[in-house]
Amino acid sequence: MIKPFDDLTDPELLAIDDETRRYYVDRECAEAGIKLLPPGGPPVKPDDEAVRDDGTVYAVGGFYFSDPDNARRVAEFVKAVPHRCTREYIHGAGYRHRLEPDDGEVRVGTETCLSRERANSMRERISASEEAKAEYTKTKTEYDTIVISRRDVETRIGGKISEVWHRKRALDRILAEWDRYTVLANGDETIARRFLVAAHEDAKTIAPGLFPDGWDVDAIIGKPTVAPMAAETMAVAPVAVEVPF
Is the overall model pTM greater than 0.70, yes or no? Predict the structure, then answer.
């Protein structure tokens, strides 16, 4: 039987892998009535149906032609018609327009599209692709909703594991420093402890096993005071300075 998460010791928390962490998250979510994530991870967005246009149309003034010659003839006809005009918006006049002469070039535009035959042949594939996209959107929304509802549980469990790892790294750092200070103190642990707590005031909290009972950290953290020099020691002898003339 797997132990409850809150009963795990620090070594057990350090040994938790991703699969075990997910188990504890799922277990706590189940107890809280939160849905489990679907197996297999988040839904995969379907690829867009690769549909390439195979037709070309020619546009003149909002009209489309499949024959470019017809489009050019229409453009030439419109250009030759006298008194062409256009509606121009009047700013600040209550959305009114006025007529203006239009003697601009009449151009033939080119656009691509699906031919009728190709569109009919691909109708089922395009419909299936649109249905797959709609299903993905629905499934992804449900998945994201579950992820959000699990966030507090994920944060609590992940935070506790991270906290243990933080303490472990801090302890490893203090123990490594202890080894170095012990060498500097020629094996004298009392001196090594003074070195350690002088540089790391939280050493006893992080690694209490390095300090025997009754060891007073506060008493050794303060820097030793330096006795003031005697007045006669501080006196400066006069120096003869030869000044050339």
Answer: no
